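Q: Now give one record:
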Amino acid sequence: MDLRLIIGRLLLAIGLLLIVAAKLAPATIRTTLYGTNLNLAWGIVLVACGALFMTTARKAK
């Protein structure tokens, strides 16, 4: 099993958890820093990185 596949799954899982936490958080917490939802932003970044890792692992086979 390729290490990129394991890392990709881990990043996807953490990213999805952050996205869910961002959607369930109260509005006062979501807009604390300059009106930006950091959990949502980093969740999207982690999901994108996880998808990139998994794609490169599957292309290598």
Observations:
- The two ends are 10 Å apart (CA to CA).
- DSSP finds three helices and no strands in the chain.
